Amino acid sequence: MIMDNNDILVRLRYALNIRDIDMVKIFKLGDVELTVEEVRKLLIKSKDTYRYNNAVDDYDEIEEKEENIKCNNRMLESFLNGLIIFKRGKQDPKPGQPEIPVLKNSENPNNMMLKKLKIALSLTSDDVIDILKETGVILTKGELSALLRKEGHKHYKECGDKYARNFIKGLAIKNRG
């Protein structure tokens, strides 16, 4: 099953137990103005997600019901930047550093999500490894380090959907019991 950015938002909302009104605040902190209704449309799973669910047979019917807003990488990154501010507070930029971080639309959204959630939730590398272990995924510190590196670094490794999905699932287990 392939995760898109809308699916990441849906899963994060559940795992972190975020209300719609808080989603609006988080997006605003990330410099994206959305209404509660627009957030709800972002949280509708896309038609492609349903293709892997055997309970749904009539995909054309889904398309008619859907009024979802597609979440692109920039919007997801803005949400995650807002989540960092929401959870940890706004930091003053260091001298010579831009006030608003430059958005990197080309980066793999799973790597970006993993890095930014680690920051937002004040997680150590051991915490991330333990969260993944809760879901049966074993990851070494070296492998995690490769997932957290900048794209283009010689030891960079792309974070697959398996790691991203299981990390969010582990967060849900940790936060919801």
What would you say this structure looks like, in words?
By secondary structure, this protein is mostly helical. The chain is built from ten helices and no strands. Helix 6 runs parallel beside helix 7 and helix 8 packs across helix 10. The longest helix is centred in the middle third of the chain and has 16 residues. The two termini are 25 Å apart. About 9% of the residues have low confidence.
List keywords for this structure.
mainly alpha; 10 helices; 177 residues
Topology, element by element:
Blueprint: H1 5-15, H2 20-29, H3 36-42, H4 47-50, H5 59-65, H6 73-88, H7 109-120, H8 125-134, H9 141-148, H10 161-176
Helix pairs in contact: 1-10, 2-6, 6-7, 7-10, 8-10
Backbone shape: globular
Report the biggest beta sheet as strand number plus sense, adding barrel if it closes: none
Low-confidence stretches: 50-65
Radius of gyration: 17 Å
Strand content: under 5%
Number of strands: 0
Following the backbone from N to C, one meets helices and strands in this order, namely HHHHHHHHHH
Helix-and-strand structural type: mainly alpha
Compute the average pLDDT. Answer: 85
Distance between the termini: 25 Å
Q: Helix tally?
A: 10
